[in-house]
């Protein structure tokens, strides 16, 4: 569901704004690092008690937004919105965070900045639909 322009944006290191649903129905927003794994978006988390992970375990519906370069010619910045369903798996967080840090922070970055980090959790997001403004919505 992600065209080539959307895939390039995700791989560019644009921060993702992840929206999950709190127990009371209100939105919960987190900024996360993501990468593509085939047709899924992946994010890593060291602490399984985080609100976003608790929310996903209860209700897998999520949305992510990414701000992009360019505009529509009258000043509206391009952006990508991905709606999907998330699932959580155990393990692999330190390895994914280390790989993502090379893009988000810079080459040679040591991350997580701790010795012997916990295995953590990965969030896998399957894309249901794409929106926003830019070459992914054409």
Radius of gyration: 15 Å
Number of helices: 3
User: In whole angstroms, how far apart are the ends?
Assistant: 13 Å
Shape: globular
Q: What low-confidence regions span 5 or more consecutive residues with pLDDT below 50?
A: none
Which structural class fits the helix and strand makeup? alpha+beta
Number of strands: 7
Average residue-wise pLDDT: 96
Task: Classify the beta-strand content into a percent band.
Answer: 35-45%
Assign a percent range to the helix content. Answer: 10-25%
Question: Main beta sheet, described?
Answer: 7 strands, antiparallel
Order of SSEs:
HEEEEHEEHE
Oligomer: single chain
For the biggest β-sheet, the strand order reads 2-1-5-6-7-4-3
Describe it for me?
- This protein is an alpha+beta fold.
- The protein is built from three helices and seven strands, in the order αββββαββαβ.
- Strands 2-1-5-6-7-4-3 form a seven-stranded antiparallel β-sheet.
- Strand 5 and strand 6 form a beta hairpin.
- The longest helix is centred in the C-terminal third of the chain and has 12 residues, at 93-104.
- The model has no long low-confidence stretch (mean pLDDT 96).
Explain briefly what this protein structure is.
By secondary structure, the chain is α+β, with helices and mostly antiparallel strands. It is 20% helix and 43% strand.
């Amino acid at each position: 569901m992600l065209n080539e322009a959307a895939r390039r944006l995700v791989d560019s290191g644009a921060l993702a704004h992840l929206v999950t649903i709190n127990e009371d129905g209100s939105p919960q927003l987190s900024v996360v690092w993501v990468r593509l794994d085939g047709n899924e978006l992946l994010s890593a988390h060291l602490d399984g008690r985080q609100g976003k992970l608790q929310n996903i375990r209860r209700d897998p519906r999520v949305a992510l937004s990414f701000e992009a370069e360019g505009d529509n010619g009258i000043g509206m910045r391009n952006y990508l919105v991905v709606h999907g369903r998330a699932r959580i798996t155990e393990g692999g967080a330190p390895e994914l965070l280390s790989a993502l840090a090379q893009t988000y922070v810079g080459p040679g970055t040591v991350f997580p900045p701790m010795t012997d980090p916990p295995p953590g959790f990965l969030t896998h997001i399957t894309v249901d639909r794409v929106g926003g403004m830019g070459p992914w919505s054409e």
